[in-house]
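Annex B. Sample input.
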Amino acid sequence: MPSAELSSGSVHYSEFGQGVPLVLLHANPGDSQDFEAVIPALSKNYRVLALDWPGYGQSAMPQQPESATVLHFYKTLREFLAVLGVPPAFFIGNSIGGNAAARLAIESPELVRGLVLVAPGGFTPHNFVSRTFCKVQGSRFSISPHRFARMYLKQRTSTTEAMLLRASTVQATTERVVLNRAMWRSFARPESDLRQTAQRIKAPTLLLFGQRDPAIPANTDGKVAARCMLSAQFVALPCGHAAFAEVPELFLAEVEPFLARCSNA
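Annex B, continued. Sample output.
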């Protein structure tokens, strides 16, 4: 399996197909295998690059996982693209992956041809309850990755069952739980918030939210994201947090025409 040697360590990625690059960015926790249900279809028309964030999948753990933040993952994405020499690309990002992709479109629009943001982080209107939840999830009292995944994956498929298995095994090691908790603490901090800057996104954008997602709800975060990006297309699907794994056919029915329109524009 290929890997990119970055300043933070080795980052694993999988590559499929040829054509315009399409970069897949998973959630916290998770790994590149979360997209396995949609990669075969997407790789028919695009060069699909699915990376494992540092500390997940087969990528090296950050040197200080207890201090990792959303900006650490964003910097990883920028360096990954530079090291591989990836030309302007499409991005599909889930949760923190969506946050990183949106931030890239804000800060380096020349690198982004189009965005598919799947329940992206950064649009939560924080209050006492949400900040307390992030604080608890960032502590030794956190809900385990497996229990939390069972809460936010609402549709059972072979892909989500495999995600749940990884959440109860490889993602449940002490070192990875430390990283998971650090990311949760980061979610409530100002550097995670995209609400004031997302209006600068010029790339065509498709917002996909799950109607049953308890983590990043369509009716709250989704509506906020849609207001921040008035030109974006908003779609709510009958699923939880990971539409590409829970309802892959419905996901592709929205994403493939969107990417085709962007490619032909």
